[in-house]
Write a structure and sequence with these properties.
The chain is α/β, with parallel strands linked by helices. It contains eleven helices and nine strands. It has a single domain, classed as TIM Barrel.
Amino acid sequence: MTKPYRADLVGSFLRPAELKQAHVDFLAGKLSNAREVEIQHAAIKDLVEKEVAAGFKAVTDGEFSRQYWHLDFLWGLKGIDKLVRADYDRNFVGNIAPADNVILTGKVAANDTHPFYDAFEYLQSVTPEGVDAKFTIPSPALIFRDHRADNWADFYDSFQAFKDDVAKAYSDSIQHFYDLGLRYLQIDDTNWAYLIDNLKKNEGDAAAQKPFVELAETAHEVIAKVLAAKPADLTITSHICRGNFQSTFLFAGGYEYVADYIKDLPYDGLFLEYDNERSGSFEPLKTLWNGDKNKRIVLGLITSKFAELEDPKAIEARIEEASQFVPKENLAISTQCGFASTEEGNKITDADQWAKLALVQKVAADTWND
């Protein structure tokens, strides 16, 4: 077991100012797509060099080719189109839904010309020998939420057939990534945190909890099918996120509300947010780990939302506390989330971002000797 690494990355990074401006200019018709891609590629190459210099054994492209951490991938699948909310003010942080969404327009299937394949190939081309090119995609569970598939019956005779197509679309997409050389994939998943929040709020009310229980069961079924089809030497992890838009959050509650739905999913690792009291206690780790000696739990003990640096000794003490439930051999550390779930990014500076990652490396080195 090598991945996840003791010090690992969640995925997204703050976009450089030049990249942000290039996207604005492209949308305004002032810059060609080819030139925007050139600027994007230069920024990714620079980022990879910095990640390697910072000591990371798996690097990401910062999600620099995306507007959103999740929607861009979903839009690239067949049977799914972009839905734009024209009345949305992206500068108003109080908004809890993205400016755009997903609409089902046909049967869901993988897309052999999905733009994420080019994005991965470029990342792989600038990743040095001996370092993993790590790529991130959103969970298939997100298709079943936020009114994205309310019209599934327009295209399917049964909900089961719809679920099966979503699972196959993901399995086929992951196989395509694998054929291109991907060996480290992370499935980002806000759905479990959404369910935690709603199951907690409706605790004791079975009728109110019912739709959330059904969504949990659907998520488990679809993800289990996707993971069952994965190549044996492909590492797949999942990051359970509570929301990260411009340093805000969406959901709160402990993992105990969903641990039983996650425990038998054969992920190689789970990236879990534990940067403050919203995440609850470490006790559910025992269930989430489920005695799987080949699974690592990556503790997101260092926040990516705010600049203030945590005390390394306090972080080390929390790792010791977590090791009461999962052997230290099966633990690792990362920031609680990435730094830019959308292109706007969190309310920190580039220097803050790298200081956080240096702290991840320091704590990992001081905690593990391997």
